[in-house]
Design a protein that fits this description.
- The structure is a homodimer of 371-residue chains.
- Chain A is of the alpha+beta class and 371 residues long.
- The first copy, chain A, has two domains: 196 residues, 2-Layer Sandwich (Ribosomal Protein S5, domain 2), CATH 3.30.230.10; 131 residues, Alpha-Beta Plaits (2-Layer Sandwich), CATH 3.30.70.890.
- Chain A is built from eleven helices and 13 strands.
- In chain A, the strands form two sheets. In chain A, strands 1, 2, 3, 4, 5, 6, 7 and 13 form an eight-stranded mixed sheet that branches. Chain A has a four-stranded antiparallel sheet with strand order 10-11-8-12, sandwiched between helices.
- In chain A, strand 6 and strand 7 form a beta hairpin.
- In chain A, helix 2 runs antiparallel to helix 4.
- Chain A is globular, with a radius of gyration of 20 Å.
- At the A-B interface, strand 6, strand 9 and helix 7 of A face strand 6, strand 9 and helix 7 of B.
- Chains A, B: It catalyses: L-homoserine + ATP = O-phospho-L-homoserine + ADP + H(+).
- Chains A, B: Pathway: Amino-acid biosynthesis; L-threonine biosynthesis; L-threonine from L-aspartate: step 4/5.
- Chains A, B: GO terms for molecular function: ATP binding; homoserine kinase activity.
- Chains A, B: Keywords: Amino-acid biosynthesis, ATP-binding, Kinase, Nucleotide-binding, Threonine biosynthesis, Transferase.
- Chains A, B: Its EC number is 2.7.1.39.
């Protein structure tokens, strides 16, 4: 698959050493990492590819997390999208083409890079890197269903952003990669970073501000176990419709309640208090009460999860997936069975449930072929 | 001062050992302590006094902390109220009398224990302990000005609650002491625990719920420095008027913004990120914009604090005190001078500023005379 590539323009190398994949991945070692974004700065010198091809992975993400609506999200392990990127002399220099999309919903996605999450993010990374002399060909392997509330578009964007960045020596910072992902999210589902942030950074991420972009990585303690039970029904919950269901005005008591639960949620994450995390995630009085009735059976699914021993349950993203929290994998499977049953009995919907750990790494290089 | 007291009724001792003062104080060793309150349970056996007199202290507190409105507060060191309590045979058994109130505003406070913060809390602790055979006499030393936004009523209630509990062997739990303090707060300034919680527990306290009462202690790292610059103007900001200024409905964007800042504030506390803490505290878009205009000069004071190097500034509690954040004591003094000047120039108000550390201990026994 690897294609040997000779750069037509010899780039002038910069003095700063390119960040390696390893360096970036080992960075979030503190409890809280605050990432502040400087103004967009294009690299003054064009980078040369260090790989002829790479394959990357970006995980599924659960955004909102109840009272964390629109500013909190986390990544889940073992579910996500892959992107392969290769230097392709047949692609116009400085541009990106999408050669293949595989997976169950491949046909629903455009191969036009300007209309594809992975393509938009890849183009933005190329632009930020200042790549003008090399064309890339992308192959997208969709592991995530579309419109499920698991950050499908963000996973594609994150995997593509990482893949392109890695090909050119991983020169962009984490925040620039998130900004590239945001460019994609903006086009397909709105300018929000609560999926693409954790898809790139892993773990829990709090979006503190957009102007400038500022992300706070909330480190869940390494020694603690955290499992997400994700029950996805066969139902479409369009983000637009789910957003239209939101209240425009919120009474002060509900504002204070949800804010305090958001604070409790952040505390529970940093402390590794899975029970507290579940209860906080389950406590939303503003968004979930409006959205749950639009997903058949959701109220019963939540009850079933709690009765099954989950510490909490809410809607993942804009739905329709329901997410429950536990610290025990076997119990998670039993909870998942109850949730699937409740979707069927109360919502008349077929559903599937999986139990997944927190993804603490985020988007990553899976394999690479050096030049 | 000590009066020798012989209990007229020999109490039956319980099997459980009474908690000592030391045990209670060393308890909050984890990053987050979740205190859940069981239903009110009166002790089945009447406790015997272990001291003839005690003297306690409870610190000033800063409630709200910007986006933490109505659910977050913290204690500040070196400012507060003292309460002396002694076994007094001249007081009707099971009752409390207030023998003395000292301090600048002593004359404004009632000596009727049913109408005094310290008295109400003391009576509630007596009731919870089941004390029927011993009368107590209280002496209150007000170190805090009234209505300043520094939790004056909570400090009196907390000091009294601790004093009475200690006299009888410190049998009540932290949450029961907070509930006793809440009884007092309810009567004088509303049923809110964001002052009395930290006044009793020290440090930062998040009020997660009231039914049941659930408090989350947020541990600011021991190795980090945190200073509060408290600038108190000669101005009355009645809590009732400040509460009437609040909006009843909040737009979704402001709700999301303030919630995210509340989350960022909690993260900054647990991580010891003083800069992040200051910025989050300074970011309120809901309450401060309504209340600041009611305190002459407040906007200028905030600007002056930030220009002076503070990481953030907001209204302490319902005001009129302004609170700024720094990690350097000397800089704190300079910031305080600027704040005082701004109150004078822009608000035509005389003000005083002090620089205080975070109080990490909360209400405590200062001295005691054993029986």
């Amino acid at each position: 698959m690897a294609i040997c590539y000779q750069s037509p323009f010899k780039p002038i190398t910069t003095l700063s050493l390119p960040r390696t994949h390893q360096t970036r991945k080992t960075r979030p070692c503190g409890v809280v990492v605050v990432v502040r974004c400087s103004k967009t700065q294009l690299l003054s010198t064009e980078p040369e590819p260090v790989f002829t091809s790479v394959r990357s992975f970006a995980p599924a993400t659960v955004a909102n997390l109840g009272p964390g609506f629109d500013f909190l999200g986390c990544a889940v392990d073992g579910l996500g999208d892959h992107v392969s990127a290769r230097v392709d002399p047949s692609v116009h220099p400085g541009e990106v083409s999408i050669s293949e999309i595989s997976g169950d919903n491949a046909k629903k996605l455009s191969k036009n890079p300007l209309w594809n999450c992975a393509g938009i993010a890849a183009i933005e990374v190329m632009r930020r890197l200042g790549v003008r002399s090399v064309g890339l060909s992308l192959s997208l392997e969709k592991g995530l269903p579309l419109g499920s509330g698991l950050g499908s578009s963000a996973a594609s964007a994150a995997a593509a952003a990482i893949a392109v960045n890695e090909i050119f020596g991983a020169r962009l910072s984490t925040e620039e990669l998130v900004l590239a992902g945001l460019k994609s999210e903006e086009k397909v589902s709105g300018y929000h970073a609560d999926n693409v942030g954790p898809a790139i950074m892993g773990g829990f991420v709090l979006i503190r501000s957009y102007q400038p972009l500022e992300l706070v990585s909330l480190k869940f303690p390494a020694e603690k176990e955290l499992f997400f039970v994700l029950a996805s029904p066969d139902f479409e919950a369009p983000t637009k419709k789910m957003r239209a269901a939101l209240p425009t005005e919120i009474g002060m008591p509900h504002h204070v309640w949800n804010s305090s639960q958001a604070g409790a949620l952040v505390a529970a994450v940093l402390q590794g208090d899975v029970e507290g995390l579940g209860r906080a995630l389950s406590s939303d009085k503003i968004v979930e009460p409006r959205r749950a009735p639009l997903i058949p059976g959701m109220a019963a699914v939540k009850r079933a999860a709690i009765e099954g021993g989950a510490f909490g349950c809410t809607i993942s993203g804009a739905g329709p997936t329901a997410v429950a929290i536990t610290d025990d994998e076997a119990r998670g499977r039993a909870i998942g069975e109850r949730m699937v049953e409740a979707f069927m009995v109360e919502g008349k919907l077929r559903a599937e449930a999986v139990v997944r750990r927190l993804d603490r790494v985020g988007a990553r290089l899976v394999s690479s072929i050096p030049r």
